[in-house]
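The instructor's notes for this session suggest beginning with a concrete chain rather than abstract definitions. Hand out the sequence below and ask the class to guess, before any prediction is shown, which regions might be ordered.
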Amino acid sequence: MIYSGKTLSVEANQDAIALLTIDLEGESVNKLASYVIKELGEAVEAIKATADLKGLVIRSGKEAFIVGADITEFHQMFEKDEAFLIDMNMTIHGIFNAIEDLPFPTVTAINGLALGGGCEITLTTDFRVMADSAKIGLPETKLGIIPGWAGCVRLPRLIGADNAIEWICGGTENRADKALAAGAVDAVLPVAELDAAALDILARANSGELDWQARRLEKTSPLKLNAIEQMMAFETAKGFVAGKAGPHYPAPVEAIKVIQKGAGESRERAQAIEAKTFARMALTDVAFNLVGLFMNDQVVKKKAKGHEKQAREIKQAAVLGAGIMGGGIAYQSASKGTPILMKDINGDAIELGLKEARKLFGKGLERGKLTTDKMAQGLSNIRPTLSYGDFGNVDLVVEAVVENPKVKAGVLAELEDNVGDDTILTSNTSTISITRLAESLKRPENFCGMHFFNPVHRMPLVEVIRGEKSSDAAIAATVAYARQMGKTPIVVNDCPGFLVNRVLFPYFGGFSLLVEKGADYQRVDKVMEKFGWPMGPAYLLDVVGMDTAVHANAVMAEGFPERMAREGKTAIQVMYDNKRLGQKNDLGFYRYEEDRKGKPKKLSDEAAQALVAEVVTETREFSDEDIIARMMVPLCMETIRCLEDNIVGSPAEADMALIYGIGFPPFRGGALRYVDAMGVAEFVALADSLAEELGPLYRPTDALRERATRGEAFYG
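After discussion, reveal the predicted structure:
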């Protein structure tokens, strides 16, 4: 044994080949935590000190190769200064360079996921063999940073600048066939044949058949690009990537700059450039928030898996109510492999639902994500019906009829009589109390809410709503089914609007108050889009639909009259009264025309502006900061109330629900991270100053004031 540690070991085989196996004790996957890097450095020194070795194979003892650095360490590391981060990365560069400089050929056997630092360690060796089921990539830009362990240095020299820019800026996980085509790996084969293939490559390299030294020289030398080629490769890419990433996500463009600056430099000089930029990006708020987002996502997934372990298997599902929503739910279930019945009392609605599912499958086929066979198989998983004939064998039903409590209650009672005693019933409702709907059922313990967001195939969130009598078994089965559908389920407790809509409508309330005070709604949209929302509040209302907004607002006002009930007409009500429903009929705060792709194009409309003028009570100029504060404070305050009322279980779940459900700007980390970034005491002071003029919607809770007094953030 050359080296033995808790995370990796090195032994020599009979042919004097060193086999470095990474296998973290007590972990399901390999990750490059700081203690792993320490042992890797010790192992490399032991390899260098061992005489007569003829090669090195780096391999994994787990199903994945290495999933990346240990992201749980990032926040603690990023609290250090720039000098610390540069020094840390240069130390790791030294270890990786020592692997690259070993006096014999080297190869990595990539048996599974090799991401981030896991990908970068594969780039240190002369050759790479990859399992046909594995994936490789550098996703760091998705965390607001850049590859920091020479990914920006080695990958362009290995696969060319254009390919490297695509991989790094896109943060993609690349399949084995793509990696082979790009030149990132030398062979792709079944995982069982990897070790033999790695040893074969080393034998051929030692015999002189493969020139490993020439390969190494090319990978450690400057890029062979003249000035014109550099301009073509880098300047064009910077413009394209900047447009695609947007102003709030600087990491992809910074990665291109690092590749460009290091292109003509030696390995060590290029690595120093990379280390300095990595440190600078790691200290940004964007990186802090995106890393926090990753951690929150892990919390949400862990909670969902906990429910899933307790769940019965959902082999057969059904959706009650077809049309666009029912068709979207049927498509999502069928496309992920769970057969589904789609029932309606109306044949036209059935056809509309099937048309929606066919359209979505067709798009998958056009984009190359589906084969014709898989599309046919997916469509065969949807069975339309006008009767309850086959509902006796259904494990879970999603009721998706019209958003009317009496209609839903009647349909659910009828449905319960036509399913098995153990069948789980769920309601796809955005506002109606699950506890109230359960009153019509004989087995309320088998019932809960399952709120999908529109469009179903794009929106990742599903709110699973626990009513007063919903059993743990019903919640577990619904969470499991949502995960089978490829969705992110978050369990919330019952209240008007549940979590997401309860938080969204105070945001719309802030918008209505701004308009009444004289703010131009088009300017409000532009300010909030610049802030990071995918669309401003007026535009979002047009997408949601004014009829839906008026209905939901009435539910909120009834449930929370002190802060959500309003006297007089709002701009939203005026739009609704004048039959301007938004994109549903091409008239709302804006008017809409189809563009060349058949999508609604937003246009300014003087008629809408004239109608909004009816509710304006004064004329006032607002700064961008004023607009942001008046929009964001009520949204954040309601999120805080939901946490305090135990509607949602944790800050992580609250923030992820807003990001996945309504497009809260990810780079800001969520409503509660936004409050933490401002400072809880500062947020309370801002809310108090607005509440004096604008009322209870803005007023901090007593618990929040106590939190501010204690100096306690929502995240530790």
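Then share the key points. The longest strand covers residues 17-22. The chain has 31 helices and 20 strands.
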